Amino acid sequence: MTLPSARIETREAPTEKELEATTQVVILGTGTPIPDAFRAGSSIAIVHKGESYLFDVGAGAVRQATIARYKYDIPSLYPSQICCVFLSHLHSDHTMDLSELAHTLWWRRNTGLQTWGPTGIAQIANGLDEIIAADANFRINGIQPVANPEGFRISHQNIAPGILFQKEDLTIEAFLVNHGDINPAFGFKVTTEDLSLVISGDTAYSDVIAEKARGVDILFHEVISRQGLEKNSPDFQRYHNSVHTTSDEVARLASIAQPKKLVLYHGLFYGTEESTVLEEIEALYEGNVF
Question: DSSP readout, 83-98?
């Protein structure tokens, strides 16, 4: 299992044992809509038996995948080799790199990128195909070798709660979460022969996540600093409480679920030090927090 930090210059290389694992997890980005020079937008890669599956593709995720491909010797993380993307919801900070992923070296793809997402994914996929149509036309009708003239097209399927994808020993399950007015929004549970994990997506506190994550190896959960939130206006506090999970709520959820590792991502700090979030959680939760 590979669990590098998502900050660009501070990742530690995985151990030899981790690189030999059947399932690897690579954090490509832990960011938010707020631009960050050192943090890509939300994106988590699950690598299983030579295939890479991305959960959200925030801004900078493709560059991070390219870095990880060479840093950790994972060929399937090269952009044109990534097969599948699962979108938790359609906020821009979770979808910005979808076109870059689908259309970087598309002419080398044997099949186009496969995507799963909430209602609206068809509009996004078809719109991005239109954006790249001129490029595709030049390459297909020119002398450049093209593996598949349809390789630029993004296939799309709507997500519904339940088992979403199965291949060999990999199972991906989707479940509804509460992201305020963004409906539907989904979290994911991924199970392989050697790893179980839950990805919260963007969500307010959810008993469903606590149940789905009970005893998993890794729980990836979004977080907002309680101290940082309280510095905001009442309107912003009301908004964030309806769409995100505060540090004390994450601690409460993790205390119920008892994952082996709690990994925080999509962190909103609002002027507080990032370490404050860890301190807020560790004051209430005794498990391993990263």
Answer: -EEE-S---GGGTTTH
Going by pLDDT thresholds of 50, 70 and 90, the confidence category of residue 20 is low
* Residues 34-47: tens digit of each pLDDT: 999 999 999 999 99
Among 3.20.20.60, 1.25.40.10, 3.60.15.10, 3.40.50.300, name the CATH number for the domain at 1-117+119-158: 3.60.15.10
Superfamily of domain 160-290, CATH level 4: Ribonuclease Z/Hydroxyacylglutathione hydrolase-like (3.60.15.10)
For residue 162, give the amino acid letter: G
pTM equals 0.92
Question: Which residues touch 185 (CB under 8 Å, ≥6 apart)?
Answer: 88, 89, 118, 176, 177, 178, 179, 201, 202, 203
- pLDDT of residue 10 exceeding 50: no
Q: Whats the size of the chain, residue-wise? A: 290
